[in-house]
Every structure is written in C-alpha cells, then in structure tokens.
Amino acid sequence: NGRRIAVMVKRGPATPDAGTVVEATYRPDRLGLVLLDLASGKSSEPCVECDIAPSPLSFSTGGSLLFRVRATGETLARARFSVLPADASPLWTIPDAERAAWMGRDLLVQASDGEWRIASGKGFEKAKVPPEARLAAIDDAGAWLTTKAGLLRIGRDGHVAQRIAGTVGRTGLEFLDGA
C-alpha cells in the first residue's frame, strides 16, 4: 500500500538445541523482520523472536504482511506461513498451509492435504478447486490455477471458471500487477 517497507535483517547464528536433528538444507543464520513506516521514518520489529524465511515477504493491498517463520533448528521447508495484520493486531499463523499468496486483501491458501481455501474477513472458506491444482499466477482479483482438466480462474469470491480446457504443459508463477 506504499506506507511501509518490510526489511529482513541478519540476527546472528540460529543454534539448534542439543540433540536436534539438523538437515543439510538448514540455514545457520537467523533473519529478523523490521518494518519501516515511510511517513514517520520510525521502525518496528513486530516479531523479535521470529526467524523469518527469505520468501515470501509480501503485502496485501490492505497493508497486511505475509511471511514464513521457522523454529530454531527447522529447515526452511518447515517454516509456517504467518500474517501481520495492517491494523497492528497480533501476528497469526496460517494452520497447515503449504502455499499462500495474496489476492488483493484476501489470501489463497493450499493446505498440506491439497485443499484450497480463501481467507478473508469472514475466516477460511473452502474453494471448489481440485487438490491437484497448482498456482500459475495471481493478482488482486483472483488466481489462475492449472489442473489435469486445464486452466482455472478463481475469484476472491470463490467463484471458479474453466478458461482453457486440456492439459497445460507448463506455466511460470507470476504475481501480476493489476492485470
């Protein structure tokens, strides 16, 4: 929304507890999150104890921030999606999310069981999208997903429409700017 910048800063080593199994993909340094208010120039750290994963780090059109947090000793693959609301209410974690991205002010989330959900002010609502669907592109109005049946468009209201029938060979994930 142009009012804040999110910055990741190095916080030093992330030393796991003795006896913790550490995988080869373990990142040995901690990253913290600093928010800079562009109008006042003041900075804040909304989650001092958090170890932030490098991506995603994205704002909704309403100013809420999506990012991933991991516990010390965990790999980046196990980091949990979290949201810092624009209204400065407490940070919340998205349970069981494998993927998450903004559709304007709403989140499109895929759970570990493959179920797709849309999170809005009303909470999480199941989207009528097959579990095997993969995110291809997303913008403020909705998302494009590939399935065995073709390319689907899901709007923020949860409405799903098939746009291209047939097998989609390959796509590249893009975050569209108002397109």
What does this structure look like?
The protein is an all-beta fold. It contains no helices and 16 strands. The strands form 4 sheets. It has a 5-stranded mixed sheet, with no helix packed on it. A 4-stranded antiparallel sheet has the order 4-5-6-7, with no helix packed on it. Strands 8-9-10-11 form a 4-stranded antiparallel sheet, with no helix packed on it. The radius of gyration is 18 Å and the shape is globular.
- Strand proportion: over 45%
Mean pLDDT figure: 81
Can you tell me the overall shape? globular
Low-confidence runs? none
**Number of separate helices:** 0
Largest pleated sheet: 5 strands, mixed
Element-level helix/strand string: EEEEEEEEEEEEEEEE
The total of beta strands comes to 16
Structural class of the secondary structure composition? mainly beta
The helix fraction, in percent, is under 10%
Keyword list:
single chain, four-stranded antiparallel β-sheet, 50% strand
Q: What's the gist of this structure?
A:
It contains no helices and 16 strands. By secondary structure, the chain is mainly β.
Secondary structure layout:
Elements: E1 4-13, E2 29-37, E3 43-44, E4 51-59, E5 65-70, E6 80-84, E7 92-93, E8 97-103, E9 106-111, E10 116-120, E11 123-126, E12 134-138, E13 142-147, E14 150-155, E15 160-165, E16 174-175
Parallel strand pairs: 12-16
Antiparallel strand pairs: 1-2, 2-3, 4-5, 5-6, 6-7, 8-9, 9-10, 10-11, 12-13, 13-14, 14-15
